[in-house]
């Protein structure tokens, strides 16, 4: 299925959950956050939250800042 | 023994210097500077990851060094974006502490008071410990405390300007009226600025640019730590009053006059 992650089109397996998406992106879980269709998804739900066709996913990371 | 700690919400800090993690040349320098500052609370930002060019992980080393994290909502231009950024930060860093900053204008980065108050009310209701970055506006600071903010962070001068305390008269009013800690944020470009803020009775200061862009950020961190401590001690000791006319420190007896 096709999803959009941070403005990039990705072709991924059906039933991909957020935790699996992180491993696909080679991202650590710590220091990151996810929103799907502008709704922030709680970390505890990442393993059970299944992404849907055409989902718009935003992945954020903690960085240095003042 | 009496400990002069800084208390914000339910946390106790022995350092009154908060430090930002931005603008350092490299991670090693940043970590050494933070350690030299003795800061316990450091700010972080959030960004959308760049899929091609991922950022280094700075979180793990900060936690290893025992730092407590204060994420900010930098980049938010209105209350809605700030609330979203705070929710993102809570999930990313697993903290409900948030430095609320909303600055729609990229040139001066001045905080939007209306949107800040709006966002603060929402975030407090959602269980965040809110520390809003604001202009040195005593009325706004009172409102922010009333809606439940854990501290207020009025500016000394625009972010990153290093101009020092240009808002002194208004900061004095904010400090006098404060029911929550007052943390002077933004514009402090030299340790003397931080010392002055503390002498005025600020509860803490937040410094980033002045340390990060110094020729020797580690030494500058140490200098800020000393200045904050000196300023605080001076405030607690009680500064003498100012006068328009001289007031002799030695007795003015006429013992040299010839009889």
Strand coverage percent of chain A: 35-45%
Class by helix and strand content of chain A? mainly beta
Helix count of chain B? Answer: 9
| CATH hierarchy, class of chain A | Alpha Beta
Multimer state: heterodimer
Radius of gyration of chain A: 11 Å
Strand content of chain B: 15-25%
For the largest beta-sheet of chain A, the strand count, sense and barrel status come to: 5 strands, mixed
Number of strands of chain B: 10
- Uncertain ranges of chain A: none
Helix percent of chain B reads 25-40%
CATH superfamily of chain B: Aldolase class I
Question: How do the strands of the widest beta sheet of chain A line up side by side?
Answer: 2-1-5-3-4
Question: How are the SSEs placed, and which strands pair?
Answer:
The complex is a heterodimer of chains A (66) and B (259).
Chain A: E1 2-5, E2 8-11, H1 18-25, E3 32-36, E4 39-41, E5 56-64
Chain B: E1 6-8, E2 11-13, E3 17-20, H1 27-37, E4 41-48, H2 59-64, E5 68-71, H3 79-93, E6 97-100, H4 113-125, E7 129-134, H5 138-146, E8 153-154, H6 168-177, E9 183-185, H7 191-199, E10 204-207, H8 209-212, H9 217-237
Parallel strand pairs in B: 3-4, 3-10, 4-5, 6-7, 7-8, 9-10
Antiparallel strand pairs in B: 1-2
Helix pairs in contact in B: 1-9, 3-4, 5-6, 7-9
